[in-house]
Structure formats: structure tokens, C-alpha cells
Amino acid sequence: MRPRLRRYWVASLTVLVSTVLFCAHAAAAPQSAAGLPRLDGGFLWGVASSGFQAEGHAPDSNWSRYIAANPAYDRLGNSVDFYDRFESDIRLAADLGVRVFRIGVEWARLQPAPGVWDEQAFRFYDSVVASIARAGMRPMITLDHWVYPGWIADRGGWRSPTIVEDWLANMRAVVDRYAAHDPLWVTVNEPVAYIAHETGRGNADAAQMLDRIAEAHNRIYDHIHHVRPNAQVTSNVGYVAGAEDRINGALVDRIAARLDYVGIDYYWGYDAARTIIEYLGGAVGSAVPPGPPIWELPIRPEGIYFALRHYADRFPGKPLYIVENGMATDNGLPRADGFTRSAHLQDTVYWIQRAEADGINVMGYNYWSLTDNYEWGSFRPRFGLYTVDTTTDPSLTRRPTDAVATYSRTIAEGGVPGDYRPTRGVSPCFLIDPPASCLRPVAAVP
Asked: Recorded E.C. number(s) (predicted)?
């Protein structure tokens, strides 16, 4: 066994034993009543994507440089070429029946040099946003999904003393251009995971970057509301089961007063070693630390209930939105745990309906992602409702997974049926989101 993996499993056993001992004395909470209600007609079903990961034809940026500097990374190429195929991809989303289509607007594409704006790049995003609207969907626009121009990298990235002003100059231009479409806004995607990437690859200072991202969020929030007072703005956290407040709490505290809804990305259940490594090293959300590959991390759909409850407790009454949720496979192969994409989706929606039934205000859910895409160094992890053999199929054909029909039916019916029961039983509480999942547990209705 390699030393890195040996340390991983030793940490797993150590933290797991202590967690079990802590939770052993917790009393069980009452179960919710049977007869699960459907989600109402105002619920925002959606799909998610990001600019750099899907568009292709990438300009010079921090991430194009990270790829060039790392021979072990898959070459980006044109990824799944959303740049040339956005209209057909948007039609695929519309055919599902979703009401929200999340995109990223890439700073590196819009501003290739200081003070230089690429009008052709703006016209590309004009076309994307207009196509989403014509298809009857609302855009969700992410301003920063971990990518910035090469000239910002030359200035030191998030260490640059002018980074916040440079960032705001671009983002204000984006807001001014698209506010009339009344998008849902995401200012910065998974800020703490962003920081983890940048400290590992871009030599950022974590504490300084956290301060600057919080300032950038708060100031662009004010600008968005100046332009459109009734706008809905968030920054989505990459939820870390068992350690959410320790990992994301400092960021949430800094931006809490400027969140119109709370964006949550939920993927994995509690993993003892991953949690302790994240606590020590700062990697969270989609930024996975050393250990098992991403498709082997534990998925526990019931954990989304606890993620929602955590933020319902933190922000009573405020709307919550699952901005990202999905399941990774290894190049589209069946998962070792037997979970299919369809079953995982249905089980997840069941737990969202349980949260709503228990009084938690959930406004929407985005599936990550519409198609497979570039997962920060590799095409191997597959998350798409539509799978794409990016490295072997020059045609980049979108092939539906079993979850396409499931998601379309689920949307049309407002969720899973009232008598639906998850395909898997509830995991032991210490494997979901301890200590909350042990101190205030829930169970699938028998």
C-alpha cells in the first residue's frame, strides 16, 4: 500500500472510531409522516454547467496554464464544445422540462487584456442567454467559476493588490449586460474549494484570498441590487459533511448579510479521512484531496436532507437552492456500489421532498451536469445526464443516460411519488453527516 493511501486509511479508522463513540449515546428523532407530498409548481428544476469545463476554445487563463504545466492532466482541447453546440444543448435541457439553466460567463474570454473587452465574446454570451430565454428557461449566471485571465495570473492572481478592483470591473460589465434578463446570480462558485485550488496551483494565500473573495461578493451583490433591486444573488458552498462549519463557516459569516438565497452543492456523505485532510489542508466541495478517486467517494443521498437542514437552521426562512448535485462514474462504467444515475437521482429527490415536508424552504435543484465535461484535470469522472466520449469520439455525440427519462418524468410529476421509498436504506448516522445526523436523525419511512 502506498504511504499516502496508508495515511488515508489510518485517518479513516481513527476518525471513524471517535465519531462512533461520540454518536453512540444519541437518541433517535421521530420519523416524518408517510405520504410524501409533491413539490409545488413554483419549484425550480434545473441543470448546471460551467464555462471553462464545457465551452472549449479556451483563451489564456490560470487554468489553461495549469493544464499546460501538468503533463498528467488530460488536455482540455475543446472539451464538449458547448461554444459551438450551445443551442442543441439548451434544447436538450428544455426537453427535460427544466426551468433553470446554469452557465458561467468566463472573465478570460471577455477581457483578454487589461482594459480590453472582446465584443465578440459578449455576443456569444448574448446568444446563450437569449437561447435559454427562448427555450422557456431562466438563466442562472455564475460570475466566477475558478477561472481568471492569464494577465491576472501574471499579476499574481488573488495575491495581486488590484485583484478585487480588476474582478469587479469585469463582473459589473457582466451584470450591466444581463441584469435585464433577471437571472439567478451566483457570484463565486464554491469559494473555499476555489481557494484550495489556488493555494495548491496558483500560490495564493488562503486567508487573504478568503477576505478578498468575501469583499468581492459583497460589493458585486450591492451593484447587482443597485441595477436590479429585486435580484436574487448567492454564492454556493461546497458542503462538507461532518465539517461544514469548520470548512465553510468563516466564508459564510462574511457574506451572510448579502445572500438572497443560499446556494448549496451536495455530493458526498461523511468520509472520515477526507474530512480531516480537508480540515488540515483546506480542500472542499469539488476539490478532492488525496485518497480514493472521486467516483469511489461515499454517496449518501440522505445526506442532502442534513445539508438543507443545516442551512435552514443557519438562515431561518431563507430560500435554499441545491445549485449542484450529481454522481460521478469512472468513464461511464457501472459504479462499484451498484448505484445507477437514475436511482441516485430519485433517491436524492425523495430526500429533498422530505426536507420540504418538514418545513425546510427549498426553492430549486440543479443537476450537475447536463453533459459530461472537464473535471479540473481529467475527463475520466463522468457526471452528465448525457454522456460524451470526449477523448475518443470526434463527433462529441450526446448520449442519454438512464437518468434523462427519470429526470423528465420527475419534473413533470413534481417529484417522486408519495409512496416512493429509496433504493437504499439509511446509512448508519455516523456515516452521513455527524454529529448532526446522529443527534437529530431521520429515517426513511417504512
From this structure: 3.2.1.21
What is the spatial distance between Cα 2 and Cα 38, in angstroms, rounded to a whole number? 48
- How much helix, strand and coil, in percent to the nearest 5, is found in the chain? 45, 15, 40
What is the C-alpha radius of gyration for the chain, rounded to an integer number of angstroms?
A: 21
Strand partners, 103: 141
Q: What CA–CA distance (Å, rounded) separates 318 from 307?
A: 14
What is the tens place of the pLDDT at every residue in 317-366? 999 999 999 999 999 999 999 999 999 999 999 999 999 999 999 999 99
**CB atoms near residue 12 (< 10 Å):** 18
Question: Which of 358, 415, 407, 418 lies closest to 385, judged by CA?
Answer: 407
The cell numbers describing 212, all together, are: 478578498
Hey, is 227 helix, strand or coil?
helix
Q: At 399, which amino acid appears?
A: R
Answer left, alpha or beta for residue 81, where phi above 0 means left and psi between -120 and 50 means alpha: left
Least confident among 3-12, 282-291, 379-388: 3-12
Assess whether pLDDT exceeds 90 at residue 314.
Answer: yes
Residue 326 has which C-alpha cell? 450529481
pTM above 0.90, yes or no: yes
Smallest CA-to-CA distance from 406 within 345, 329, 328, 324 is with 345
pLDDT of residue 292: 86
Q: How many CB atoms lie within 10 A of CB 68?
A: 12
Q: What is the DSSP string of 91-130?
A: HHHHHHT-SEEEEE--HHHH-SBTTB--HHHHHHHHHHHH
Active site residues: 324
Backbone angles phi and psi of 185, in degrees to 5: -105, 135
User: Bridge partners of 238?
Assistant: 265
Is the bond preceding 435 in cis, omega lying within 30 degrees of 0? yes
CA dihedral 328, 330, 333, 335 (to 10 degrees): -60
C-alpha cell at 288: 478532492
User: What average pLDDT does the structure give for the chain?
Assistant: 91
- The cell numbers describing 125, all together, are 454570451
- Whether 348 contacts 39, CB under 8 Å: no
- The predicted model gives 106-126 an average pLDDT of 97
∠ CA 435-252-107, rounded to 5°: 130
Residue with cell 482541447: 77
CA 343 to CA 346: how far, in whole Å? 5
Confidence class for position 191, pLDDT limits 50, 70, 90:
very high
Q: 360: which 3 cell numbers?
A: 425546510
